[in-house]
From TrEMBL:
Coiled coil: none
Single Gene Ontology MF annotation: protein heterodimerization activity
Homology family: Belongs to the histone H2B family.
Organism from which the protein derives: Myodes glareolus
Biased composition range(s): Basic residues: 58-69
Protein name: Core Histone H2A/H2B/H3 domain-containing protein
Amino acid sequence: MATSSVSVTGASDMDTVQESTSAEEPTAVDDQASDTSEEAVKVRKPKKATSKKEKQQPKKSKKPEKRCRRSLRLLQRQRMKENELRVARLIRRRRNSFAIYFPKVLRLVHVDLTLSQRSVSILDSFVKDMFERIAMEASNLVRQNKSTTINSREIQTAVRLLLTGEMRERAIAEGTMAMVRYISTK
Protein backbone atom coordinates (compact mmCIF):
# COMPACT_ATOMS: atom_id res chain seq x y z
CA MET A 1 0.00 0.00 0.00
CA ALA A 2 1.65 3.14 -1.16
CA THR A 3 0.88 6.63 0.10
CA SER A 4 1.28 9.62 -2.13
CA SER A 5 0.95 13.30 -1.48
CA VAL A 6 -1.38 15.18 -3.80
CA SER A 7 -1.76 18.95 -3.85
CA VAL A 8 -4.54 20.77 -5.61
CA THR A 9 -3.70 23.67 -7.92
CA GLY A 10 -4.43 27.03 -6.45
CA ALA A 11 -3.78 25.78 -2.93
CA SER A 12 -0.84 26.77 -0.81
CA ASP A 13 2.07 24.43 -0.19
CA MET A 14 0.78 23.67 3.28
CA ASP A 15 -2.56 22.39 1.95
CA THR A 16 -1.38 18.96 0.85
CA VAL A 17 -3.66 16.02 1.27
CA GLN A 18 -2.41 12.54 2.14
CA GLU A 19 -4.31 9.84 0.27
CA SER A 20 -3.81 6.14 0.53
CA THR A 21 -3.90 4.31 -2.79
CA SER A 22 -3.73 0.64 -3.46
CA ALA A 23 -2.20 -1.05 -6.47
CA GLU A 24 -5.63 -1.46 -8.10
CA GLU A 25 -6.67 2.19 -7.91
CA PRO A 26 -5.47 4.41 -10.74
CA THR A 27 -3.62 7.54 -9.71
CA ALA A 28 -4.13 10.92 -11.38
CA VAL A 29 -0.91 12.21 -12.88
CA ASP A 30 0.00 15.07 -15.18
CA ASP A 31 0.53 14.37 -18.91
CA GLN A 32 4.15 15.58 -18.88
CA ALA A 33 5.37 13.75 -15.80
CA SER A 34 4.77 10.05 -15.57
CA ASP A 35 6.83 9.52 -12.46
CA THR A 36 5.50 9.68 -8.92
CA SER A 37 6.92 13.09 -8.09
CA GLU A 38 5.09 15.61 -5.96
CA GLU A 39 3.84 17.86 -8.73
CA ALA A 40 0.52 19.61 -8.85
CA VAL A 41 -2.19 17.45 -10.29
CA LYS A 42 -5.43 18.80 -11.69
CA VAL A 43 -8.39 16.87 -10.33
CA ARG A 44 -11.73 17.36 -12.02
CA LYS A 45 -15.08 16.52 -10.57
CA PRO A 46 -17.36 14.37 -12.73
CA LYS A 47 -20.05 16.28 -14.59
CA LYS A 48 -23.60 15.97 -13.39
CA ALA A 49 -26.11 14.47 -15.77
CA THR A 50 -28.67 17.19 -16.52
CA SER A 51 -31.85 17.13 -18.54
CA LYS A 52 -32.70 19.52 -21.35
CA LYS A 53 -35.06 21.50 -19.12
CA GLU A 54 -32.35 22.10 -16.54
CA LYS A 55 -29.96 23.29 -19.25
CA GLN A 56 -32.54 25.79 -20.59
CA GLN A 57 -33.39 27.28 -17.20
CA PRO A 58 -31.02 29.92 -15.85
CA LYS A 59 -28.99 28.84 -12.85
CA LYS A 60 -30.08 30.26 -9.53
CA SER A 61 -27.76 30.90 -6.66
CA LYS A 62 -28.51 28.45 -3.85
CA LYS A 63 -27.58 30.62 -0.88
CA PRO A 64 -30.29 33.30 -1.26
CA GLU A 65 -32.83 30.59 -1.99
CA LYS A 66 -31.97 28.85 1.27
CA ARG A 67 -32.24 32.14 3.11
CA CYS A 68 -35.61 32.87 1.53
CA ARG A 69 -36.85 29.41 2.39
CA ARG A 70 -35.54 29.74 5.92
CA SER A 71 -37.17 33.14 6.43
CA LEU A 72 -40.38 31.88 4.84
CA ARG A 73 -40.42 28.93 7.23
CA LEU A 74 -39.85 31.24 10.19
CA LEU A 75 -42.74 33.46 9.10
CA GLN A 76 -45.00 30.45 8.67
CA ARG A 77 -44.07 29.17 12.14
CA GLN A 78 -44.77 32.59 13.66
CA ARG A 79 -48.14 32.75 11.92
CA MET A 80 -48.98 29.26 13.13
CA LYS A 81 -48.07 30.22 16.68
CA GLU A 82 -50.18 33.39 16.43
CA ASN A 83 -53.11 31.40 15.07
CA GLU A 84 -52.75 28.80 17.82
CA LEU A 85 -52.69 31.53 20.46
CA ARG A 86 -55.75 33.18 18.91
CA VAL A 87 -57.61 29.87 18.87
CA ALA A 88 -56.59 29.18 22.47
CA ARG A 89 -57.91 32.58 23.52
CA LEU A 90 -61.18 31.93 21.72
CA ILE A 91 -61.50 28.54 23.38
CA ARG A 92 -60.92 30.12 26.77
CA ARG A 93 -63.52 32.78 26.00
CA ARG A 94 -66.09 30.33 24.70
CA ARG A 95 -66.64 28.67 28.05
CA ASN A 96 -70.36 28.92 28.44
CA SER A 97 -70.66 30.18 31.95
CA PHE A 98 -73.01 32.54 33.71
CA ALA A 99 -70.57 32.99 36.59
CA ILE A 100 -69.79 36.63 35.76
CA TYR A 101 -73.44 37.63 36.21
CA PHE A 102 -74.00 36.21 39.69
CA PRO A 103 -71.88 38.79 41.60
CA LYS A 104 -73.46 41.63 39.61
CA VAL A 105 -76.98 40.54 40.48
CA LEU A 106 -76.01 39.86 44.10
CA ARG A 107 -74.59 43.41 44.45
CA LEU A 108 -77.95 44.80 43.34
CA VAL A 109 -79.74 42.88 46.12
CA HIS A 110 -77.13 42.64 48.91
CA VAL A 111 -74.08 44.88 48.60
CA ASP A 112 -71.99 43.32 51.35
CA LEU A 113 -72.45 39.63 50.45
CA THR A 114 -70.14 37.52 48.26
CA LEU A 115 -70.30 34.04 46.74
CA SER A 116 -67.83 31.21 47.16
CA GLN A 117 -66.43 29.41 44.12
CA ARG A 118 -68.45 26.31 44.89
CA SER A 119 -71.73 28.24 45.19
CA VAL A 120 -70.99 29.96 41.86
CA SER A 121 -70.44 26.58 40.17
CA ILE A 122 -73.70 25.23 41.67
CA LEU A 123 -75.65 28.28 40.49
CA ASP A 124 -74.01 28.01 37.06
CA SER A 125 -75.03 24.37 36.64
CA PHE A 126 -78.56 25.26 37.84
CA VAL A 127 -78.93 28.05 35.27
CA LYS A 128 -77.59 25.85 32.46
CA ASP A 129 -79.97 23.05 33.40
CA MET A 130 -82.97 25.41 33.48
CA PHE A 131 -81.95 26.90 30.14
CA GLU A 132 -81.82 23.43 28.55
CA ARG A 133 -85.19 22.49 30.05
CA ILE A 134 -86.87 25.69 28.84
CA ALA A 135 -85.34 25.32 25.36
CA MET A 136 -86.45 21.67 25.13
CA GLU A 137 -90.01 22.49 26.24
CA ALA A 138 -90.21 25.42 23.83
CA SER A 139 -88.98 23.13 21.05
CA ASN A 140 -91.71 20.62 21.86
CA LEU A 141 -94.34 23.40 21.82
CA VAL A 142 -93.13 24.60 18.41
CA ARG A 143 -93.35 21.05 17.04
CA GLN A 144 -96.89 20.66 18.37
CA ASN A 145 -97.94 23.94 16.75
CA LYS A 146 -96.27 22.87 13.46
CA SER A 147 -94.16 25.98 13.41
CA THR A 148 -90.42 26.41 12.73
CA THR A 149 -89.52 29.38 14.94
CA ILE A 150 -89.33 29.68 18.71
CA ASN A 151 -90.97 32.96 19.70
CA SER A 152 -91.32 34.72 23.05
CA ARG A 153 -94.76 33.15 23.41
CA GLU A 154 -93.31 29.59 23.37
CA ILE A 155 -90.62 30.60 25.89
CA GLN A 156 -93.24 32.13 28.19
CA THR A 157 -95.41 29.01 27.97
CA ALA A 158 -92.40 26.77 28.67
CA VAL A 159 -91.57 28.84 31.78
CA ARG A 160 -95.18 28.55 32.98
CA LEU A 161 -95.04 24.77 32.56
CA LEU A 162 -91.66 24.27 34.25
CA LEU A 163 -91.59 26.75 37.16
CA THR A 164 -93.99 27.01 40.06
CA GLY A 165 -95.24 29.70 42.43
CA GLU A 166 -93.47 33.00 42.89
CA MET A 167 -90.54 31.90 40.76
CA ARG A 168 -92.87 31.55 37.74
CA GLU A 169 -94.42 35.00 38.26
CA ARG A 170 -91.01 36.71 38.69
CA ALA A 171 -89.60 34.97 35.61
CA ILE A 172 -92.57 35.96 33.44
CA ALA A 173 -92.45 39.58 34.68
CA GLU A 174 -88.68 39.88 34.09
CA GLY A 175 -88.96 38.27 30.65
CA THR A 176 -91.76 40.65 29.65
CA MET A 177 -89.74 43.67 30.84
CA ALA A 178 -86.69 42.46 28.89
CA MET A 179 -88.81 42.16 25.73
CA VAL A 180 -90.26 45.67 26.22
CA ARG A 181 -86.71 47.08 26.65
CA TYR A 182 -85.49 45.25 23.57
CA ILE A 183 -88.39 46.43 21.40
CA SER A 184 -88.06 50.02 22.62
CA THR A 185 -84.37 50.16 21.62
CA LYS A 186 -85.15 49.17 18.02
